[in-house]
Amino acid sequence: MTTFEMALSAPGRATEIPEASDVYGWLIGSWDLEVRRFGADGAEYRGSGAVHFAWVLEGRIVQDVWIMRNTYGMTLRVWDPAIDAWRVNWINPVTGARTELVGRRCGQDIVQIGTHADGRPIRWIFTDIAPDSFRWVGEVLEADGKSWRPEAEFRAQRVIS
Hints:
With about 160 residues, the chain is mostly beta strands. The chain has one domain: Lipocalin (Beta Barrel). The protein is about 5% helix and about 60% strand. It has 1 helix and 10 strands. It has one helix spanning about 5-10, and strands at about 30-40, 45-55, 60-70, 70-80, 85-90, 100-105, 110-115, 120-130, 135-140, 150-160. The protein has a 10-stranded antiparallel beta barrel with strand order 1-2-3-4-5-6-7-8-9-10. A hairpin with a 5-residue loop joins strand 1 (about 30-40) and strand 2.
């Protein structure tokens, strides 16, 4: 492991983050992905990929890297006690897309709320959560202000804990 990797990686959650607020720690490890993307015109695109999650910076952040055909990105999930939630920042260096959301547990799911760069509301949901699988759904609010349209769905299977 390089000096940079040793400085970045952490063995677990920082003690400052309450155990009850640790909504992302269960993701630590590597996952295979079955990918479905949905165009605004209703077209569906299928593929595969992988995602890797780790605690970083003294266990204060959950960082992940999503890798799919011709695209990849990184998310930083930072606990913010002032709002009793996680600040989620997604970056896609290929397209330049950046998305900021706020993530919280909602029943059995984890719901992350934010906006696209054009101001349209979005929600990204971890659902159907099990020890070795989950489904992630990304949706955008339609112009009617009531209907949510799926933009992406990932079905994940754990490869490495």
